Records
---
Amino acid sequence: MDDDMVFDPSLKKKKKKKTGFDMDAALAEQGESASMEAPVETGDVDVPEDDNLDLDNFGKKKKKKKKTFFNLEEIENALPETPPIEEPEPQEVEDIDDLDLDIDFSKTKKKKKKKNNLDEHVVEDDVKGEDQENVEDMHGDWVGSDRDYTYDELLERVFDIMREKNPSMVAGKKQKFIMRPPQVVRIGTKKTSFANFTEICKTLHRQPKHLLDFLLAELGTSGSVDGNSQLIIKGRFQQKQIENVLRRYIKEYVTCHTCRSPDTILQKDTRLFFLQCETCGSRCSVASIKSGFQAVTGKRAAIRAKTA
Amino acid sequence: MSIQNLNTFDPFADAIKSSEDDVQDGLVHVRIQQRSGRKTLTTVQGLSSEYDLKKIVRACKKEFACNGTVVEHPEYGEVLQLQGDQRENICQWLTKSGLVKPDQLKVHGF
Ligand SMILES: [Zn+2]
């Protein structure tokens, strides 16, 4: 901290960099959130989405860091002649609160850099491979120098190592959850086809019968699987509606209620279904599927004729 | 072993029998069914038989400006039927009037 106080010019730079950094972070976030939502939509329950959010943050951190380096360079190039460049940018960005953590990290990093020779560092960073950027950068900052490392630096270091050693922690889980959206097409005016029903059962590792029972009970209608392994449902339904029901199905019958892992087995045991988790080993009973009360909606005359 | 325990004789079976499923899981199921065209029907199953469903349906009809009726079902007891998708409305109304706690409501459908 003392060092920083000495270098007045560097402080100024810091501020500018911060704003530039924010800009990019925001852009990165926008880009990511847009791209993320598309694949997750389908089958994902709320639960995994939470996971994804966390994962996103991890991803963001990385990206931001990468971008900061580019930014540093740009800004340094820009600094001598055009300091006001950053002025218009910060407004768009400052609203973002949830990035505080990251920003803090970047601040500390930047301070370090300023102590050393700025230009050198930037060049170095550019040369380094993208993935290793963070780690090496961390090491480079305090390993060589006499000063003590800070808590933030250590924290970041441990996270970097974790990410490096278990790429599956960040990406693997998410990929498991990516599911094709249900293909829902209207057949005539009164029926709906859920074309990839069997395929979705396979991705979820569930018996078609089980999912079928759930869908029909929830939608309060009837239907069956036809020769082309598509599900024909009575009534008009949109893809979004089917997706909603699927999401609830996955939440209740696919993902573990304890650890949210989708790696589970559904077992029937004395008329109760149990969800056995392969990841954490938990086993819990799940709600049985009941269609419950069904109101008479068809033509009463026809029903009367049938029963009479 | 635990399974065997489940199979033991339940001395209170008779007492629960009257409104079996609903009271047993203690939930009020709000469902939607499609009728012809864009028309839908909302059903409310599992309301306690201590309530006067006829009074409830009268209040709901007025409140939501829809028609409704009470249907007697051998297994599920008295069931409320309302025209249209009244799931949001009925859930709010039931919780606001204190008849059902929010965590007892189970909304089905799309
Ligand atoms: Zn688990």
---
Amino acid sequence: MTTAAVMSLPITSDLEIAGVRQAVREAAVAAGFSLVEQTKVVTAASELARNTLVHGGGGRLEITMLERPQGKGIRLRFRDEGPGIADVETALSDGYTTGHGLGLGLGGARRLVQEFAIDTGPGRGTTVTVTAWPRGARRV
Amino acid sequence: MQRVSVHRLGEVLLASLQQELTDSLAVALQQDLTGMAAAGTRGVIIDISQVEIVDSFLARVLAEIAAATRILAGRTVVCGMRPSVAITMVEMGLGLPGLHTTRSLEDALTLLEAGEVSP
Amino acid sequence: MTVAESSGAAAVAEFLRARREQLAQQWADLALFRAVYTSGRDIAVNAAHGLVDALTEVARDGRMDDVTVPALDQVRALLAQVIAARSQAGAGPLQVAGEVAELKRPVIAMVGRELADVNRGAALIAATDLMGTVRLVGMEISLSDEGAIVARQRQQLSEIATPVLKLWDRVVAVPLIGTLDSARTQVVMETLLEAIVDERATVAILDITGVPLVDTVVAQHLMKTALAVRLMGARCVVSGIRPQIAQTIVQLGIDLGDITTRATLADALEWALAQVGTSVGRA
Ligand SMILES: Nc1ncnc2c1ncn2[C@@H]1O[C@H](COP(=O)(O)OP(=O)(O)OP(=O)(O)O)[C@@H](O)[C@H]1O
Ligand SMILES: [Mg+2]
């Protein structure tokens, strides 16, 4: 698998969340995602970017274009230096929120992508990495 | 700051959401609608036919508008959701509790005019 | 490689490194980048940086007019993204090739203007070679990309073995036949929802008479489809649940929730006709 074209975007305001959605949409279009596939990855990005802003106190998104023989994909890495998550399994469960949300963001985002990983811990900040492939490029 | 404009059509409030909606715009709309809804308002229509994604934040704002409207004015109808948005919401596990949905704005108006469907 | 060639290449590599920012800024304003990265100039500049860096590597390698060098892989990957986006947006291969060719002018202009006399001749030749190679790679991609699009359209055609029928004004139906795997159900769901928009339908019938087996996975797909139909403001009815299938559903303890079901397609149509006119979905 080759990777290329890393781009990095700040997430410090809700306007920048909108910017994240736009940039992820463009990356998905460039990777040949169908409209439904684009919508899924953009929605996941919107959830994760908001968590970065609201729970993580702001951070950045790094977008990487991926390529393997079956097709192209995109990897999104959301990184913040916030309080971190003590119990990831609980945070991922539907309906769990420490704020006023529906508690569906993290678990929902996981259902919308093909690969999902969280690196976090109390005081360590949070890095969420997700990868999405269009239908034709999913079989390894 | 720009705002989502809300129009009054007789006894109905209509808000058409633009393609890209920031969180603060959504919250401002919620406040505007709750402020405008009053006695004599039958319901609220939110046209989302231009909206490209509905995430948990927007879903919650819509549900809260519905909850507030139910007390003050009647029903909230969301119309025109795109197929890609509907599929994504379902895969994600998001619903629109407390809201009515219709295909088109006309259907939404008909529904509110008919008025006999319980909220 | 002659001495002049290699010194030209080295001068170009050094030039690209030193002028990375200026060049990226100029490329970001060209049609190729502007049309793809519409959300902001920064993103276009960022993408252009990537291409300058990749070309710097090619120049360091020194073989400017060889389209097979490994150093070109990165260039190819970057161009492939941009070109795919352009052709998805409807730009034909010729137009895209023209847009790729435009990348050359700012490079040549800057090399000619900025390099000292001793290096200029060899560097200009090397830069021209390099940009010629970029153009070739671009052509190769946009032509093979066209091939990919044709192949994709063929695949989509074969997937629409699941036709959506318009049964009545505002009533659509999809007769499901055969085994339902995830990928196929996804296609069915998408096709049905699109048909709801196209036909301005308010009722969708999912007929599973032709489905041999309903297990938990299939039931879940039916639920999801029904939910999505409702979010869109239409209603969904599942028909053709044969007695054996009804029994399996009960035995497996599958909860179809509040999905409306009917025994036959005719029953479902009757139900649908009663709904049309009220045309109301509940989320
Ligand atoms: N980047 C992060 N830093 C710290 N905590 C986080 C982060 N992301 C998620 N969390 C924690 O995980 C919980 C669940 O997140 P999730 O996105 O599912 O719900 P939410 O953000 O509370 O509500 P919503 O449904 O609106 O997204 C959050 O309430 C928060 O406590
Ligand atoms: Mg969240």
